[in-house]
Write a structure and sequence with these properties.
This protein is of the alpha/beta class. It has a single domain, classed as DHBP synthase. Helix content is 29%, strand content 18%. A hairpin with a 4-residue loop joins strand 2 and strand 3. Helix 1 packs across helix 5. It is globular and about 50 Å long.
Length: 218
């Protein structure tokens, strides 16, 4: 039987401060929280805590050569995580952050190989969804933003559809009701002079290329 004590309803547009505070405390204590983003539910943990990140790999049954993206509470934190922020990245940041665009940078040497999967790169997003944003602010540190699904399986946009293995392993589940669904964030690698779209998602590829060329999203 599912443990309903860990399931908490959260207002998607105006999350209750007490619930966000509770979720933040769990993350600070090496816990794992299921949370809503714009399209899909994600799994949040302290991105700098190896124990917490290991929990996510185990929950998702994720190969260790598959990096885990990170959410940050504010743009100023980006410089502490990446080696450089090239102009091509700044164009995309100015156009699409906060929002559903994950950018892949060359990681600072201190970033755990658990996060980078020993690629030397880190995927980062500044979230727009009120719950995801509030959770980042409460933790005031990078948190994981990987989707709440078993590796290789479709993302979860409705908590009743959450895989039982993930549900049982989570410390808290923030249920904001059915989400939009879809592919989640678009992912663009900006480490090379010619950026690469690694995953087509919410941000249209045409808008990405237009922004890189003109500095505007449309």
């Amino acid at each position: 039987m599912p443990d309903h004590s860990k399931l908490v309803a959260v207002e998607p547009l105006s999350p209750q401060p007490g619930i966000i505070h509770m979720a933040g405390k769990i993350i600070h204590a090496q816990g794992v929280v299921i949370f809503p983003a714009k399209c899909l539910y994600g799994i949040a943990a302290d991105a700098f805590d190896p124990v917490a990140v290991e929990k996510i790999y185990n929950l998702k049954k994720r190969p260790r050569n598959n990096p885990i993206l990170v959410l940050i509470p504010e743009l100023s934190m980006l410089k502490d995580l990446v080696q450089e922020i090239p102009d091509r990245a700044r164009k995309l940041i100015n156009a699409f952050w906060p929002g559903n665009l994950t950018l892949v940078f060359n990681a600072q040497p201190h970033i755990s190989p658990l996060i980078t999967a020993r690629t030397g790169k880190i995927g980062i997003r500044l979230p727009q969804h009120p719950v995801a944003s509030a959770l980042c602010q409460a933790v005031n540190a990078p948190i994981t933003g990987t989707s709440a699904n078993l590796s290789g399986q479709p993302g979860c946009h409705h908590i009743p559809d959450l895989d039982p293995f993930i549900r049982d392993g989570a410390d808290l589940i923030l249920d904001a009701g059915p989400l939009k669904g879809g592919k989640g964030s678009s992912v663009v690698d900006v480490t090379a002079p010619e950026p690469r779209i690694l995953r087509h998602g919410e941000i249209n590829a045409k808008d990405v290329w237009t922004c890189l060329k003109t500095g505007r999203s449309q």
